[in-house]
Write the C-alpha coordinates for this entry.
Amino acid sequence: MDPKAVKSDLVLILDFGSQYTHLITRRIRSLSIFSLCISGTSPLSSITSLNPKVVILSGGPHSVHSADSPSFADGFVEWAQSNGVFVLGICYGLQLIVQRLGGEVKVGEKQEYGRMEIEVEKSCGIYGGKRVGDRQVVWMSHGDEAARLPNGFEVVARSQQGAVAAVEDNERRFYGLQYHPEVTHSPEGMETLRHFLFDVCGVSAGWKMEDVMEEEIKVINKTVAPDDHVICALSGGVDSTVAATLVHKAIGDRLHCCFVDNGLLRYKERERVMETFERDLHLPVTCVDATDQFLSKLKGVVDPEMKRKIIGKEFISIFDAFAQELEHKIGKKPAFLVQGTLYPDVIESCPPPGTGRTHSHTIKSHHNVGGLPKDMKLKLIEPLKLLFKDEVRQLGRILRVPEPFLKRHPFPGPGLAVRVLGDVTEGNALDILRQVDEIFIQSIKDAGIYDSIWQAFAVFLPVKSVGVQGDQRTHSHVVALRAVTSQDGMTADWYYFEHKFLDDVARKICNRVRGVNRVVQDITSKPPSTIEWE
Ligand SMILES: Nc1ncnc2c1ncn2[C@@H]1O[C@H](COP(=O)(O)OP(=O)(O)OP(=O)(O)O)[C@@H](O)[C@H]1O
Ligand SMILES: O=c1[nH]c(=O)c2[nH+]cn([C@@H]3O[C@H](COP(=O)(O)O)[C@@H](O)[C@H]3O)c2[nH]1
Ligand SMILES: NC(=O)CC[C@H](N)C(=O)O
Ligand SMILES: [Mg+2]
Protein backbone atom coordinates (compact mmCIF):
# COMPACT_ATOMS: atom_id res chain seq x y z
CA MET A 1 0.00 0.00 0.00
CA ASP A 2 1.38 3.38 -0.92
CA PRO A 3 0.69 5.72 2.04
CA LYS A 4 0.84 8.71 -0.26
CA ALA A 5 -2.12 7.49 -2.30
CA VAL A 6 -4.49 7.32 0.68
CA LYS A 7 -7.22 9.96 0.65
CA SER A 8 -6.75 11.01 4.24
CA ASP A 9 -4.27 13.12 6.11
CA LEU A 10 -1.60 10.95 7.65
CA VAL A 11 -1.04 10.72 11.38
CA LEU A 12 2.43 9.31 11.80
CA ILE A 13 3.34 7.53 15.01
CA LEU A 14 6.98 7.58 16.04
CA ASP A 15 7.42 4.46 18.12
CA PHE A 16 9.63 4.51 21.18
CA GLY A 17 8.75 0.98 22.26
CA SER A 18 5.51 1.35 24.19
CA GLN A 19 3.36 -1.74 24.38
CA TYR A 20 0.45 0.42 23.28
CA THR A 21 1.92 2.00 20.17
CA HIS A 22 -0.16 -0.22 17.89
CA LEU A 23 -3.25 0.77 19.81
CA ILE A 24 -2.70 4.43 18.94
CA THR A 25 -2.64 3.44 15.26
CA ARG A 26 -5.84 1.43 15.61
CA ARG A 27 -7.70 4.12 17.50
CA ILE A 28 -6.82 6.70 14.89
CA ARG A 29 -7.81 4.46 12.01
CA SER A 30 -11.14 3.87 13.72
CA LEU A 31 -11.74 7.61 13.19
CA SER A 32 -11.27 7.00 9.41
CA ILE A 33 -7.89 8.71 9.55
CA PHE A 34 -4.91 6.94 8.03
CA SER A 35 -2.20 6.18 10.55
CA LEU A 36 1.19 4.51 10.27
CA CYS A 37 3.92 3.72 12.72
CA ILE A 38 7.66 3.94 12.14
CA SER A 39 10.66 3.76 14.43
CA GLY A 40 11.02 6.75 16.72
CA THR A 41 14.65 7.14 15.68
CA SER A 42 13.93 7.13 11.93
CA PRO A 43 15.97 9.67 9.97
CA LEU A 44 14.22 12.96 9.34
CA SER A 45 13.89 12.15 5.64
CA SER A 46 11.72 9.06 6.42
CA ILE A 47 9.35 11.31 8.34
CA THR A 48 9.22 14.19 5.90
CA SER A 49 8.82 11.94 2.85
CA LEU A 50 5.55 10.65 4.29
CA ASN A 51 4.27 14.20 4.63
CA PRO A 52 2.26 13.70 7.83
CA LYS A 53 -0.16 16.31 9.12
CA VAL A 54 0.31 15.13 12.69
CA VAL A 55 3.16 13.26 14.37
CA ILE A 56 2.54 11.39 17.62
CA LEU A 57 5.49 10.38 19.77
CA SER A 58 4.65 7.16 21.62
CA GLY A 59 5.44 6.11 25.15
CA GLY A 60 8.28 3.74 25.89
CA PRO A 61 10.16 1.81 28.56
CA HIS A 62 13.17 4.15 28.56
CA SER A 63 13.91 7.17 30.69
CA VAL A 64 15.01 10.35 28.91
CA HIS A 65 17.85 10.55 31.42
CA SER A 66 19.63 7.38 30.36
CA ALA A 67 22.42 7.82 27.84
CA ASP A 68 21.03 5.36 25.29
CA SER A 69 17.42 6.54 25.41
CA PRO A 70 15.92 6.81 21.92
CA SER A 71 14.96 10.22 20.56
CA PHE A 72 13.62 11.80 17.38
CA ALA A 73 15.99 13.01 14.66
CA ASP A 74 17.73 16.38 14.83
CA GLY A 75 15.87 18.97 12.82
CA PHE A 76 12.49 17.38 13.57
CA VAL A 77 11.24 20.27 15.71
CA GLU A 78 12.29 22.89 13.15
CA TRP A 79 10.76 20.88 10.28
CA ALA A 80 7.45 20.46 12.17
CA GLN A 81 7.27 24.16 12.93
CA SER A 82 8.05 25.39 9.47
CA ASN A 83 5.60 22.94 7.87
CA GLY A 84 2.62 23.49 10.15
CA VAL A 85 2.83 19.92 11.50
CA PHE A 86 1.14 19.20 14.84
CA VAL A 87 3.06 17.11 17.37
CA LEU A 88 1.61 15.16 20.30
CA GLY A 89 3.79 13.38 22.84
CA ILE A 90 2.30 10.56 24.86
CA CYS A 91 4.04 9.66 28.15
CA TYR A 92 7.71 9.14 27.17
CA GLY A 93 6.85 11.20 24.07
CA LEU A 94 5.79 14.13 26.26
CA GLN A 95 8.95 13.78 28.32
CA LEU A 96 11.06 13.84 25.15
CA ILE A 97 9.37 17.02 23.93
CA VAL A 98 9.91 18.70 27.28
CA GLN A 99 13.56 17.72 27.40
CA ARG A 100 14.43 18.45 23.77
CA LEU A 101 12.69 21.84 23.77
CA GLY A 102 14.57 23.09 26.81
CA GLY A 103 12.43 22.10 29.78
CA GLU A 104 13.32 19.63 32.51
CA VAL A 105 12.23 16.08 33.27
CA LYS A 106 12.96 14.54 36.66
CA VAL A 107 12.28 11.30 38.45
CA GLY A 108 8.86 11.82 39.99
CA GLU A 109 8.52 11.91 43.77
CA LYS A 110 5.61 9.55 43.46
CA GLN A 111 5.31 7.22 40.52
CA GLU A 112 1.97 6.89 38.81
CA TYR A 113 0.95 3.46 37.61
CA GLY A 114 -2.62 2.55 36.74
CA ARG A 115 -5.85 4.38 37.39
CA MET A 116 -5.52 8.09 38.23
CA GLU A 117 -7.74 11.11 38.23
CA ILE A 118 -6.71 14.29 36.43
CA GLU A 119 -8.17 17.76 36.64
CA VAL A 120 -8.39 20.29 33.81
CA GLU A 121 -6.45 23.43 34.73
CA LYS A 122 -6.97 25.42 31.54
CA SER A 123 -9.74 25.10 29.00
CA CYS A 124 -8.25 24.04 25.69
CA GLY A 125 -8.93 22.34 22.36
CA ILE A 126 -7.75 18.89 23.44
CA TYR A 127 -10.47 18.66 26.06
CA GLY A 128 -13.25 20.05 23.88
CA GLY A 129 -15.98 21.62 25.97
CA LYS A 130 -14.47 20.65 29.34
CA ARG A 131 -14.13 23.40 31.90
CA VAL A 132 -11.47 24.24 34.44
CA GLY A 133 -11.95 21.94 37.42
CA ASP A 134 -13.51 19.09 35.39
CA ARG A 135 -12.10 15.72 36.30
CA GLN A 136 -11.62 12.45 34.44
CA VAL A 137 -10.11 9.05 35.07
CA VAL A 138 -7.05 8.18 32.99
CA TRP A 139 -4.54 5.35 32.86
CA MET A 140 -0.96 6.24 33.81
CA SER A 141 2.28 4.30 33.60
CA HIS A 142 5.27 6.48 34.35
CA GLY A 143 8.04 7.15 36.86
CA ASP A 144 9.53 10.33 35.35
CA GLU A 145 7.63 13.61 35.12
CA ALA A 146 7.89 17.08 33.59
CA ALA A 147 9.40 19.32 36.28
CA ARG A 148 9.87 22.53 34.27
CA LEU A 149 8.16 23.22 30.96
CA PRO A 150 9.94 24.73 27.95
CA ASN A 151 9.13 28.38 27.17
CA GLY A 152 5.71 28.80 25.58
CA PHE A 153 4.26 25.64 27.12
CA GLU A 154 1.34 25.66 29.56
CA VAL A 155 -0.05 23.00 31.87
CA VAL A 156 -3.62 22.16 30.88
CA ALA A 157 -4.25 19.29 33.31
CA ARG A 158 -2.70 17.84 36.45
CA SER A 159 -2.97 14.48 38.16
CA GLN A 160 -4.48 14.10 41.63
CA GLN A 161 -0.89 13.91 42.90
CA GLY A 162 -0.07 17.27 41.32
CA ALA A 163 2.04 15.94 38.45
CA VAL A 164 1.79 17.47 34.98
CA ALA A 165 -0.79 15.43 33.04
CA ALA A 166 -1.31 17.49 29.87
CA VAL A 167 0.55 20.38 28.25
CA GLU A 168 0.26 22.56 25.16
CA ASP A 169 2.12 25.15 23.18
CA ASN A 170 -0.52 26.30 20.75
CA GLU A 171 1.81 28.74 19.10
CA ARG A 172 4.30 26.05 18.06
CA ARG A 173 1.60 23.31 17.81
CA PHE A 174 3.24 21.01 20.39
CA TYR A 175 1.04 19.02 22.81
CA GLY A 176 1.63 16.33 25.39
CA LEU A 177 -0.28 13.85 27.53
CA GLN A 178 1.48 12.14 30.41
CA TYR A 179 -1.15 9.36 30.41
CA HIS A 180 -2.28 6.89 27.75
CA PRO A 181 -5.44 8.09 25.97
CA GLU A 182 -5.23 5.06 23.63
CA VAL A 183 -6.08 2.39 26.23
CA THR A 184 -9.69 1.62 27.07
CA HIS A 185 -8.87 2.14 30.74
CA SER A 186 -8.76 5.87 29.94
CA PRO A 187 -12.53 6.07 29.30
CA GLU A 188 -12.42 9.56 27.82
CA GLY A 189 -9.14 9.02 25.98
CA MET A 190 -10.77 8.40 22.62
CA GLU A 191 -12.76 11.61 22.97
CA THR A 192 -9.53 13.48 23.69
CA LEU A 193 -7.82 12.01 20.61
CA ARG A 194 -10.86 12.95 18.53
CA HIS A 195 -10.81 16.56 19.77
CA PHE A 196 -7.08 16.78 19.28
CA LEU A 197 -7.10 15.44 15.72
CA PHE A 198 -10.24 17.10 14.38
CA ASP A 199 -10.63 20.31 16.41
CA VAL A 200 -7.01 21.18 17.17
CA CYS A 201 -5.21 19.80 14.11
CA GLY A 202 -8.09 20.00 11.60
CA VAL A 203 -7.23 16.58 10.15
CA SER A 204 -9.33 15.44 7.21
CA ALA A 205 -10.53 11.85 7.43
CA GLY A 206 -10.90 9.67 4.39
CA TRP A 207 -9.44 6.27 5.21
CA LYS A 208 -11.92 3.81 3.73
CA MET A 209 -11.47 0.11 3.17
CA GLU A 210 -12.78 0.46 -0.41
CA ASP A 211 -9.91 2.84 -1.12
CA VAL A 212 -7.46 0.46 0.48
CA MET A 213 -8.66 -2.27 -1.87
CA GLU A 214 -8.37 -0.15 -4.99
CA GLU A 215 -5.01 1.16 -3.96
CA GLU A 216 -3.71 -2.36 -3.23
CA ILE A 217 -4.84 -3.57 -6.64
CA LYS A 218 -3.00 -0.69 -8.28
CA VAL A 219 0.17 -1.44 -6.31
CA ILE A 220 0.00 -5.16 -7.20
CA ASN A 221 -0.42 -4.36 -10.88
CA LYS A 222 2.51 -1.99 -10.73
CA THR A 223 4.73 -4.54 -8.97
CA VAL A 224 3.81 -7.56 -11.07
CA ALA A 225 4.60 -7.24 -14.80
CA PRO A 226 1.81 -8.30 -17.22
CA ASP A 227 3.56 -11.61 -17.99
CA ASP A 228 4.70 -12.33 -14.41
CA HIS A 229 3.20 -15.19 -12.44
CA VAL A 230 2.63 -15.19 -8.69
CA ILE A 231 2.39 -17.89 -6.03
CA CYS A 232 0.11 -17.46 -3.03
CA ALA A 233 0.75 -19.28 0.23
CA LEU A 234 -2.79 -20.23 1.07
CA SER A 235 -3.68 -21.70 4.45
CA GLY A 236 -7.45 -21.51 4.30
CA GLY A 237 -7.28 -18.95 7.13
CA VAL A 238 -8.80 -15.49 7.02
CA ASP A 239 -5.68 -13.57 6.03
CA SER A 240 -4.42 -15.63 3.12
CA THR A 241 -7.95 -16.14 1.80
CA VAL A 242 -8.49 -12.40 1.66
CA ALA A 243 -4.98 -11.82 0.27
CA ALA A 244 -5.51 -14.46 -2.45
CA THR A 245 -8.92 -13.05 -3.41
CA LEU A 246 -7.46 -9.56 -3.65
CA VAL A 247 -4.48 -10.60 -5.76
CA HIS A 248 -6.71 -12.76 -7.94
CA LYS A 249 -8.88 -9.72 -8.58
CA ALA A 250 -5.75 -7.84 -9.64
CA ILE A 251 -3.97 -10.40 -11.84
CA GLY A 252 -6.52 -13.15 -12.51
CA ASP A 253 -5.24 -16.64 -13.31
CA ARG A 254 -1.59 -15.69 -13.20
CA LEU A 255 -2.08 -16.42 -9.50
CA HIS A 256 -1.26 -19.97 -8.38
CA CYS A 257 -2.28 -20.88 -4.82
CA CYS A 258 -0.32 -23.42 -2.84
CA PHE A 259 -1.68 -25.03 0.31
CA VAL A 260 0.89 -26.92 2.36
CA ASP A 261 0.00 -29.91 4.48
CA ASN A 262 2.87 -29.64 6.93
CA GLY A 263 1.64 -32.49 9.11
CA LEU A 264 0.76 -29.92 11.75
CA LEU A 265 -2.80 -29.27 10.64
CA ARG A 266 -5.97 -29.93 12.59
CA TYR A 267 -8.37 -32.84 12.19
CA LYS A 268 -9.40 -33.22 8.51
CA GLU A 269 -8.18 -29.68 7.81
CA ARG A 270 -6.57 -30.54 4.50
CA GLU A 271 -9.75 -32.11 3.12
CA ARG A 272 -11.87 -29.24 4.41
CA VAL A 273 -9.68 -26.51 2.97
CA MET A 274 -9.34 -28.14 -0.45
CA GLU A 275 -13.05 -28.84 -0.69
CA THR A 276 -14.32 -25.42 0.37
CA PHE A 277 -11.81 -23.51 -1.73
CA GLU A 278 -12.79 -25.18 -4.95
CA ARG A 279 -16.45 -25.10 -4.15
CA ASP A 280 -16.94 -21.63 -2.65
CA LEU A 281 -14.09 -19.47 -3.84
CA HIS A 282 -13.28 -20.90 -7.27
CA LEU A 283 -9.60 -20.22 -6.70
CA PRO A 284 -7.19 -22.76 -8.19
CA VAL A 285 -5.26 -24.41 -5.33
CA THR A 286 -2.54 -27.06 -5.38
CA CYS A 287 -2.03 -29.08 -2.21
CA VAL A 288 1.55 -30.05 -1.40
CA ASP A 289 1.93 -32.90 1.06
CA ALA A 290 5.07 -32.06 3.04
CA THR A 291 4.28 -33.92 6.24
CA ASP A 292 7.49 -35.96 6.29
CA GLN A 293 9.66 -33.00 5.36
CA PHE A 294 8.38 -30.89 8.27
CA LEU A 295 8.20 -33.63 10.89
CA SER A 296 11.67 -34.98 10.16
CA LYS A 297 13.15 -31.50 10.58
CA LEU A 298 11.23 -30.99 13.83
CA LYS A 299 12.26 -34.30 15.39
CA GLY A 300 13.84 -33.74 18.77
CA VAL A 301 13.40 -29.94 18.66
CA VAL A 302 11.93 -28.52 21.86
CA ASP A 303 12.81 -24.82 21.75
CA PRO A 304 9.78 -22.80 20.60
CA GLU A 305 11.80 -20.24 18.62
CA MET A 306 13.78 -23.02 16.92
CA LYS A 307 10.56 -24.72 15.91
CA ARG A 308 9.24 -21.48 14.43
CA LYS A 309 12.42 -20.79 12.46
CA ILE A 310 12.55 -24.36 11.09
CA ILE A 311 8.93 -24.13 10.00
CA GLY A 312 9.40 -20.71 8.35
CA LYS A 313 12.36 -22.06 6.40
CA GLU A 314 10.60 -25.24 5.28
CA PHE A 315 7.59 -23.29 4.06
CA ILE A 316 9.83 -21.19 1.82
CA SER A 317 11.72 -24.21 0.47
CA ILE A 318 8.35 -25.70 -0.52
CA PHE A 319 7.26 -22.52 -2.25
CA ASP A 320 10.59 -22.42 -4.13
CA ALA A 321 10.06 -25.99 -5.31
CA PHE A 322 6.48 -25.17 -6.28
CA ALA A 323 7.75 -22.21 -8.34
CA GLN A 324 10.18 -24.52 -10.12
CA GLU A 325 7.41 -26.99 -10.92
CA LEU A 326 5.25 -24.22 -12.30
CA GLU A 327 8.11 -23.15 -14.55
CA HIS A 328 7.97 -26.55 -16.24
CA LYS A 329 4.23 -26.25 -16.67
CA ILE A 330 3.76 -22.64 -17.77
CA GLY A 331 7.18 -21.83 -19.16
CA LYS A 332 7.90 -18.99 -16.74
CA LYS A 333 9.06 -19.08 -13.15
CA PRO A 334 6.87 -17.14 -10.74
CA ALA A 335 8.90 -14.38 -9.13
CA PHE A 336 6.55 -13.40 -6.31
CA LEU A 337 5.07 -14.99 -3.21
CA VAL A 338 1.86 -13.63 -1.69
CA GLN A 339 1.50 -14.11 2.06
CA GLY A 340 -1.34 -13.06 4.34
CA THR A 341 0.96 -11.27 6.77
CA LEU A 342 -0.80 -8.82 9.09
CA TYR A 343 0.41 -5.84 11.08
CA PRO A 344 0.44 -7.74 14.40
CA ASP A 345 2.57 -10.55 12.85
CA VAL A 346 5.15 -7.88 12.10
CA ILE A 347 4.80 -6.11 15.43
CA GLU A 348 5.41 -9.27 17.48
CA SER A 349 8.08 -10.89 15.32
CA CYS A 350 11.79 -10.12 15.23
CA PRO A 351 11.42 -6.49 14.30
CA PRO A 352 12.84 -6.24 10.77
CA PRO A 353 14.18 -2.85 9.63
CA GLY A 354 11.54 -0.38 8.62
CA THR A 355 8.78 -1.84 10.77
CA GLY A 356 9.15 0.76 13.45
CA ARG A 357 9.71 -1.73 16.27
CA THR A 358 13.39 -1.18 16.90
CA HIS A 359 12.88 -0.26 20.55
CA SER A 360 10.63 -3.11 21.59
CA HIS A 361 11.18 -6.77 22.32
CA THR A 362 10.66 -9.79 20.05
CA ILE A 363 7.79 -11.72 21.55
CA LYS A 364 7.87 -14.61 19.11
CA SER A 365 9.01 -15.09 15.53
CA HIS A 366 5.93 -15.54 13.40
CA HIS A 367 6.85 -18.12 10.77
CA ASN A 368 5.94 -15.75 7.95
CA VAL A 369 8.01 -12.80 9.23
CA GLY A 370 10.77 -13.47 11.75
CA GLY A 371 10.94 -17.14 10.70
CA LEU A 372 11.76 -16.45 7.05
CA PRO A 373 15.21 -17.46 5.76
CA LYS A 374 17.54 -14.62 4.79
CA ASP A 375 18.30 -15.88 1.27
CA MET A 376 14.78 -15.96 -0.15
CA LYS A 377 14.52 -16.07 -3.94
CA LEU A 378 10.84 -15.22 -4.24
CA LYS A 379 9.94 -11.58 -3.71
CA LEU A 380 7.21 -11.04 -1.14
CA ILE A 381 3.84 -9.44 -1.79
CA GLU A 382 2.06 -8.79 1.48
CA PRO A 383 -0.98 -6.66 0.73
CA LEU A 384 -2.36 -6.86 4.29
CA LYS A 385 0.87 -5.99 6.05
CA LEU A 386 -0.47 -2.74 7.45
CA LEU A 387 -3.87 -4.06 8.51
CA PHE A 388 -5.27 -5.52 11.71
CA LYS A 389 -7.43 -8.63 11.59
CA ASP A 390 -10.76 -6.85 11.98
CA GLU A 391 -9.75 -4.59 9.09
CA VAL A 392 -8.89 -7.65 6.99
CA ARG A 393 -12.33 -9.11 7.72
CA GLN A 394 -13.84 -5.81 6.60
CA LEU A 395 -11.82 -5.93 3.38
CA GLY A 396 -12.91 -9.56 2.86
CA ARG A 397 -16.55 -8.48 3.05
CA ILE A 398 -15.96 -5.86 0.37
CA LEU A 399 -14.32 -8.56 -1.76
CA ARG A 400 -17.38 -10.77 -1.14
CA VAL A 401 -15.42 -13.55 0.54
CA PRO A 402 -18.11 -15.82 2.05
CA GLU A 403 -18.76 -15.11 5.72
CA PRO A 404 -17.76 -18.58 7.05
CA PHE A 405 -14.21 -17.98 5.74
CA LEU A 406 -14.04 -14.59 7.40
CA LYS A 407 -15.34 -15.81 10.72
CA ARG A 408 -12.83 -18.64 11.10
CA HIS A 409 -10.75 -18.50 14.23
CA PRO A 410 -7.10 -17.71 13.44
CA PHE A 411 -4.84 -20.75 13.16
CA PRO A 412 -1.09 -20.10 13.25
CA GLY A 413 1.10 -21.24 10.35
CA PRO A 414 3.31 -23.34 12.68
CA GLY A 415 0.04 -25.06 13.57
CA LEU A 416 0.00 -27.81 16.14
CA ALA A 417 3.79 -27.52 16.52
CA VAL A 418 3.24 -24.59 18.88
CA ARG A 419 0.41 -26.42 20.66
CA VAL A 420 2.28 -29.64 21.39
CA LEU A 421 4.76 -28.42 23.97
CA GLY A 422 8.20 -29.91 23.46
CA ASP A 423 9.01 -32.42 20.71
CA VAL A 424 6.00 -32.62 18.39
CA THR A 425 7.04 -35.96 16.98
CA GLU A 426 7.08 -37.69 20.37
CA GLY A 427 4.58 -40.58 20.68
CA ASN A 428 1.17 -39.86 19.24
CA ALA A 429 0.92 -36.32 20.64
CA LEU A 430 -0.26 -34.78 17.35
CA ASP A 431 -2.93 -37.40 16.92
CA ILE A 432 -4.22 -37.01 20.47
CA LEU A 433 -4.26 -33.24 20.12
CA ARG A 434 -6.23 -33.41 16.85
CA GLN A 435 -8.95 -35.47 18.50
CA VAL A 436 -9.16 -33.28 21.60
CA ASP A 437 -9.20 -30.09 19.55
CA GLU A 438 -11.96 -31.38 17.29
CA ILE A 439 -14.19 -32.28 20.27
CA PHE A 440 -13.58 -28.87 21.85
CA ILE A 441 -14.25 -26.86 18.68
CA GLN A 442 -17.26 -28.93 17.69
CA SER A 443 -18.75 -28.46 21.18
CA ILE A 444 -18.19 -24.71 20.89
CA LYS A 445 -19.97 -24.68 17.53
CA ASP A 446 -22.82 -26.80 18.87
CA ALA A 447 -23.23 -24.41 21.80
CA GLY A 448 -23.57 -21.49 19.33
CA ILE A 449 -20.67 -19.53 20.86
CA TYR A 450 -18.02 -19.92 18.10
CA ASP A 451 -18.48 -16.37 16.84
CA SER A 452 -18.17 -14.78 20.26
CA ILE A 453 -14.72 -16.29 20.75
CA TRP A 454 -11.61 -14.90 19.04
CA GLN A 455 -9.79 -18.21 19.12
CA ALA A 456 -10.20 -21.56 20.84
CA PHE A 457 -7.93 -24.58 20.80
CA ALA A 458 -6.42 -27.36 22.86
CA VAL A 459 -2.81 -27.74 23.97
CA PHE A 460 -0.95 -31.01 24.50
CA LEU A 461 1.19 -30.93 27.62
CA PRO A 462 4.28 -33.11 27.88
CA VAL A 463 3.26 -34.34 31.33
CA LYS A 464 1.40 -37.38 32.52
CA SER A 465 -0.86 -37.65 35.53
CA VAL A 466 -2.43 -40.52 37.39
CA GLY A 467 -6.07 -41.30 36.80
CA VAL A 468 -8.56 -44.05 37.39
CA GLN A 469 -10.62 -45.26 34.47
CA GLY A 470 -12.77 -48.38 34.61
CA ASP A 471 -11.30 -49.21 38.01
CA GLN A 472 -7.87 -49.27 36.43
CA ARG A 473 -5.00 -47.00 37.23
CA THR A 474 -3.98 -44.88 34.26
CA HIS A 475 -0.90 -42.76 33.76
CA SER A 476 -1.92 -40.57 30.84
CA HIS A 477 -1.63 -37.17 29.28
CA VAL A 478 -2.97 -33.82 30.41
CA VAL A 479 -4.50 -31.46 27.86
CA ALA A 480 -5.32 -27.80 28.33
CA LEU A 481 -8.20 -25.90 26.78
CA ARG A 482 -7.65 -22.28 25.77
CA ALA A 483 -10.31 -19.86 24.52
CA VAL A 484 -9.85 -16.11 24.37
CA THR A 485 -11.66 -12.97 23.39
CA SER A 486 -9.72 -10.26 21.61
CA GLN A 487 -10.02 -7.45 19.11
CA ASP A 488 -6.75 -7.87 17.29
CA GLY A 489 -4.79 -10.66 18.95
CA MET A 490 -2.43 -8.17 20.59
CA THR A 491 -4.17 -8.31 23.95
CA ALA A 492 -6.67 -10.97 24.98
CA ASP A 493 -8.80 -12.14 27.85
CA TRP A 494 -9.80 -15.70 28.61
CA TYR A 495 -13.32 -16.68 27.69
CA TYR A 496 -15.81 -17.45 30.46
CA PHE A 497 -17.54 -20.73 29.60
CA GLU A 498 -20.54 -21.95 31.51
CA HIS A 499 -19.56 -24.65 33.98
CA LYS A 500 -21.89 -27.16 32.40
CA PHE A 501 -20.22 -26.64 29.03
CA LEU A 502 -16.77 -27.28 30.49
CA ASP A 503 -18.02 -30.27 32.40
CA ASP A 504 -19.45 -31.82 29.20
CA VAL A 505 -16.35 -31.12 27.14
CA ALA A 506 -13.95 -32.54 29.73
CA ARG A 507 -16.03 -35.70 30.04
CA LYS A 508 -16.28 -36.15 26.27
CA ILE A 509 -12.51 -35.73 25.89
CA CYS A 510 -11.59 -38.28 28.54
CA ASN A 511 -14.21 -40.73 27.34
CA ARG A 512 -13.33 -40.54 23.69
CA VAL A 513 -9.63 -39.84 23.45
CA ARG A 514 -7.36 -42.70 24.44
CA GLY A 515 -4.30 -41.45 26.27
CA VAL A 516 -5.89 -38.47 28.05
CA ASN A 517 -7.13 -38.64 31.63
CA ARG A 518 -7.07 -34.99 32.67
CA VAL A 519 -8.34 -31.73 31.21
CA VAL A 520 -7.41 -28.28 32.52
CA GLN A 521 -8.40 -24.80 31.40
CA ASP A 522 -6.02 -21.92 30.77
CA ILE A 523 -7.35 -18.83 32.56
CA THR A 524 -4.65 -16.29 31.79
CA SER A 525 -5.04 -13.16 29.75
CA LYS A 526 -2.50 -11.71 27.31
CA PRO A 527 -0.45 -10.17 28.85
CA PRO A 528 1.00 -11.81 30.93
CA SER A 529 0.60 -14.92 28.72
CA THR A 530 0.43 -15.00 24.95
CA ILE A 531 -2.47 -16.63 23.13
CA GLU A 532 -0.49 -19.63 21.88
CA TRP A 533 1.59 -21.52 24.42
CA GLU A 534 4.79 -21.40 22.38
N1 LIG B 1 -0.53 -24.50 5.58
C1 LIG B 1 -0.19 -23.41 4.89
N2 LIG B 1 0.00 -23.47 3.57
C2 LIG B 1 0.37 -22.38 2.85
N3 LIG B 1 0.58 -21.17 3.40
C3 LIG B 1 0.41 -21.04 4.72
C4 LIG B 1 0.01 -22.13 5.54
N4 LIG B 1 -0.10 -21.69 6.81
C5 LIG B 1 0.21 -20.38 6.80
N5 LIG B 1 0.52 -19.97 5.54
C6 LIG B 1 0.93 -18.61 5.12
O1 LIG B 1 1.35 -17.87 6.26
C7 LIG B 1 0.55 -16.71 6.41
C8 LIG B 1 0.37 -16.35 7.86
O2 LIG B 1 -0.40 -17.33 8.53
P1 LIG B 1 -1.59 -16.87 9.45
O3 LIG B 1 -2.09 -18.06 10.18
O4 LIG B 1 -1.18 -15.67 10.19
O5 LIG B 1 -2.68 -16.35 8.42
P2 LIG B 1 -3.89 -17.12 7.81
O6 LIG B 1 -3.72 -18.56 8.02
O7 LIG B 1 -4.03 -16.70 6.39
O8 LIG B 1 -5.09 -16.53 8.61
P3 LIG B 1 -5.52 -16.87 10.10
O9 LIG B 1 -4.69 -15.95 10.96
O10 LIG B 1 -6.95 -16.55 10.11
O11 LIG B 1 -5.20 -18.29 10.37
C9 LIG B 1 -0.74 -17.07 5.71
O12 LIG B 1 -1.46 -15.91 5.38
C10 LIG B 1 -0.24 -17.84 4.54
O13 LIG B 1 0.23 -16.95 3.54
O1 LIG C 1 0.57 -17.24 11.16
C1 LIG C 1 0.99 -17.20 12.30
N1 LIG C 1 2.26 -17.54 12.47
C2 LIG C 1 2.84 -17.63 13.65
O2 LIG C 1 4.01 -17.97 13.75
C3 LIG C 1 2.00 -17.29 14.77
N2 LIG C 1 2.22 -17.26 16.10
C4 LIG C 1 1.04 -16.86 16.68
N3 LIG C 1 0.11 -16.65 15.75
C5 LIG C 1 -1.25 -16.15 15.95
O3 LIG C 1 -1.12 -14.76 16.27
C6 LIG C 1 -2.05 -14.38 17.31
C7 LIG C 1 -1.29 -13.89 18.52
O4 LIG C 1 -0.63 -14.99 19.07
P1 LIG C 1 0.30 -14.97 20.36
O5 LIG C 1 -0.45 -14.23 21.42
O6 LIG C 1 0.53 -16.40 20.70
O7 LIG C 1 1.54 -14.25 19.94
C8 LIG C 1 -2.87 -15.64 17.58
O8 LIG C 1 -4.03 -15.56 16.79
C9 LIG C 1 -1.95 -16.77 17.14
O9 LIG C 1 -2.64 -17.95 16.78
C10 LIG C 1 0.68 -16.89 14.56
N4 LIG C 1 0.19 -16.84 13.33
N1 LIG D 1 4.97 4.67 29.67
C1 LIG D 1 5.98 5.50 29.40
O1 LIG D 1 6.13 6.04 28.32
C2 LIG D 1 6.98 5.64 30.50
C3 LIG D 1 8.03 6.66 30.25
C4 LIG D 1 9.19 6.58 31.22
N2 LIG D 1 9.86 5.31 31.08
C5 LIG D 1 8.67 6.78 32.66
O2 LIG D 1 8.63 5.86 33.43
O3 LIG D 1 8.33 7.88 33.01
MG1 LIG E 1 -3.52 -19.40 9.77
